[in-house]
Amino acid sequence: MKYLQEYRNGDCIRTVAAELEKTSSRPWTLMEICGGQTHAIAKYGLQQLLPPGIQLVHGPGCPVCVTPQEIIDGAITIAAMPDVIFCSYGDMLRVPGSVSDLLQVKAGGGDIRIIYSPLQALHLAEQNPNKQVVFLAIGFETTATANALTLSLAKQKSLHNFSALISQFLVAPAIRSICARKDCQIQGFLAAGHVCAITGYEQYHQLAENYHIPIVITGFEPLDIIEGVLRCIRQLEGGHYRVENQYQRAVTQAGNRTAQSLLKTVFKISAQHWRGIGEIPTSGLILKEEYASFDAARRFNLPTSNRADNRGCLSGEILLGLKKPCDCPHFAQKCHPQQPLGAPMVSSEGACAAYYHYRDQVSVNGSALPNSPNR
């Protein structure tokens, strides 16, 4: 990518870190929403460049992590059926269900295809008219747009052997839910730049005003993130609470109107269950009635339930910024990528996976994180 190295320039990053040191006069706790930002923070050791009083905690912006267990169980049920081709992104295969995961179904003979775009699932449906092709449609507004396009095409083509198991989430209601909690410790947010490229950030102004909290739309490179932190701290130190757009090269206030229109055509807003957190009002997307025939949950008569996900995993507290992965007694011991207790250790955007893979760059009070006994 052209100019990418500019956003990884060590001298520029250290200059911003020095400015942060001058600006900050007291402890502050900020949350980066996106799991991609969490991995960048861990990979580049950005927490270690910040003044000791500035703490970054990690939000629920990992779609794999928040996909509810009943969706995983439903996916496992469908994928094990004969004459079904089940399509999913790769990191979903290891997410634990109640008693199994998709990888075990695949090992047992289930026809599960790892794809990189929902359009691949659509092509499989065209190529296999005698099979039911089911796509596990997870994610936030970014992937929801591609999923909406795919479902729109499926309807245009009258592909009756294509359906999607829907688990779509909206970011702004999650921020509102975190801010409204009595145990909320967050004083500023770094919002996900790629989500805002779709949605814009008009909806964030009221959040910043109502909860007296700065929100900075932030990119994903090290310089983006540390500049986002600086902008947040400047506001907090000055007693200001507004929305700023650090990621101006990709985000406008209005967002992508074409993508927004497509989302409204296919989906409607609904309450959504977030794994480890619970139900958040108006935080999800479900298919409109005119697309109901493409709903895999209906097509395969899946039961509806919100099963508790309690295997000793602290994912809910981690996703709410109340704890960090290293606070879990099972981290890198009983829980590691080869044997995950919860989704945050599985996902390529999960906070636990970030701390595990980059634990040489992440430390707690100056001490290195533990290694897995199976490493």
Automatic annotation (TrEMBL):
Q: Name one GO biological process term.
A: protein maturation
GO molecular function terms here?
A: 4 iron, 4 sulfur cluster binding; carbon monoxide binding; iron ion binding
The residue stretches assigned to a coiled coil in this entry are: none
Q: Which UniProt keywords apply?
A: Iron, Metal-binding
> Could you tell me which Pfam families the record lists for this protein?
HypD (PF01924)
Q: Does the keyword Lipid metabolism apply?
A: no
Where is the chain membrane-spanning?
none
- The family this protein is said to belong to: Belongs to the HypD family.
Q: What is this protein called?
A: Hydrogenase maturation factor
Tell me the organism: Microbulbifer okhotskensis
Gene from which the chain derives: hypD
